[in-house]
Amino acid sequence: MKINSICCIGAGYVGGPTMAVIAQKCPNIKVTVVDLNQERIDKWNDANTQNIPVYEPGLPEVVQEARGRNLFFSTEVDKAIEEAQLIFISVNTPTKTYGSGKGMAADLKYIELCARQIARVATTDKIVVEKSTLPVRTAEALKSILHNTGNGVQFQILSNPEFLAEGTAVQDLLNPDRVLIGGDTTPEGQKAIQSLVDIYAHWVSREKILTTNVWSSELSKLTANAFLAQRVSSINAISELCEKTGANVSEVAKAIGMDSRIGNKFLKASVGFGGSCFQKDILNLVYIAKSYGLHEVAEYWEQVIIMNDHQKRRFSKNIVSTLYNTVSGKKITFLGWAFKKDTNDTRESAAIYIADDLLNEQALISVYDPKVSSAQVQYDLNYLQTRSEQTNATLVQSHTNVYEACKDAHAIAVLTEWDEFKTYDWQKIYDTMLKPAFIFDGRNLLNSEMLEKIGFKYQSIGS
Ligand code: UDX
Ligand code: ADP
């Protein structure tokens, strides 16, 4: 089928950037991104593309080029579904917070709602593409809903997992290491795969477009994220050993990373990985393994999460013990709240958990993040339901000026590796802090020599 109209359900961190790049590269295909959230759609339609709801370097320019030409953002979900020949499902799939599989399985209610909506609305044949990360065999559930509740039209289900990393989404989409498309082995399935291959082939070379069966595609996404997260937990495990033995984790990472079999990426010790994918995908993997009775497999992957939780906890414990075993009433400034640099996404950010630990110790927290709003910080803390909203609002203040944020603080914790943190006037910051002035660098970002010369007591991860 030659595709000239695409719809994407879900205008979030995945759907928005991915569709913007498809629209930019395929000017002859109409791409409509729909979402139930009117405020989000309004922001995507903001005349000033700097105000779009997802902060990604390079994205405003792509949206500027394609929006109004062949890229549209709308809340008219039914209309977009009906018009499109190919529908991407890119809605959120959070970890279940209730019932069976609580805390582990993905909550598929949003996906199911989409499937039912597509089935209800569609009057012509559609290719439905899973874009969100989903547990293996979701396609089967989608298929069942579409075929049993539809109007007799034909549906082909494809899995096309997204591998973009936030902060580098546009570059990752423009130059992907690979594009993965899973579909049925039937002639109709193969035709549907080909239609999607043809879209990516507008800018991705054919050798980089892999086609597989649906289950391999679904499982590859979970496995890729599990392997990446495992590398971070592995180096973080070594960071603790380094701190005890006098080795330096950056030196160890460099030494092992030069082994071409290991490679040098994803070996940066940190306060712990965050983001919407790693933990959720590993939990999915663990849940699937458990549900097949594969307990060793489940426990093996679960350890990656256990290590990550330990890394976060030990960071906050170290702050408390270094500050003479009490942070009660002490101001601690967080540099960074996002889960990594160059994004405004805070989902599962280590900062949230470090803050929660320190608040339990009655600390006062002051936050500076160049892209995260005060409202988001409060939302993230309230979501944990550890204490009242009122208490969070009293104990945690956000600032838009970093020097204000650091004034009278006992300590600074670096939680996101924003480049701008390296360029601050650190002498000026030191002068306004209480002494001794501590820095806990959870990203091994800052220049220790320079800071120690000024007078800071500086601690990094793994040395
Ligand atoms: C990840 C995958 O990389 C991407 O392919 C997938 O599509 C979605 O999940 P993302 O979560 O956006 O992407 O960011 P990523 O760059 O993978 O970082 C995840 C977390 O690991 C961040 O908190 C990051 O700071 C941390 N990290 C990463 C480290 O602590 N050390 C490293 O060496 C690398
Ligand atoms: P991701 O990182 O996977 O893109 P987000 O939470 O950023 O996740 O985006 C998912 C989007 O999907 C949200 O904006 C949400 O409003 C939207 N969404 C969820 N369910 C539906 C639905 N049934 N129809 C339309 N949009 C939906």
Which features would summarize this protein structure in a list?
about 475 residues; six-stranded parallel beta sheet; binds uridine-5'-diphosphate-xylopyranose; about 45% helix; UDP-Glc/GDP-Man_DH_C_sf; Rossmann fold; alpha/beta; 2 domains; UDP-Glc/GDP-Man_DH_C; binds adenosine-5'-diphosphate; 18 helices; NAD; oxidoreductase
Instruction: From the 3D structure, determine the CATH topology of the largest domain.
Output: Rossmann fold
Q: Assign the CATH superfamily of the largest domain.
A: NAD(P)-binding Rossmann-like Domain
* Count of domain modules: 2
Residues in helix, %: 40-55%
If classified by CATH, what would the architecture of the largest domain be?
3-Layer(aba) Sandwich
Query: What's the number of helices?
Result: 18
Strand content: 5-15%
Q: Helix/strand/pairing class, anyone?
A: alpha/beta
Please compute the radius of gyration using only Cα atoms: 23 Å
Question: Cofactors and ligands present?
Answer: uridine-5'-diphosphate-xylopyranose, adenosine-5'-diphosphate
Average of per-residue pLDDT values: 96
Strand order of the largest sheet: 3-2-1-4-5-6
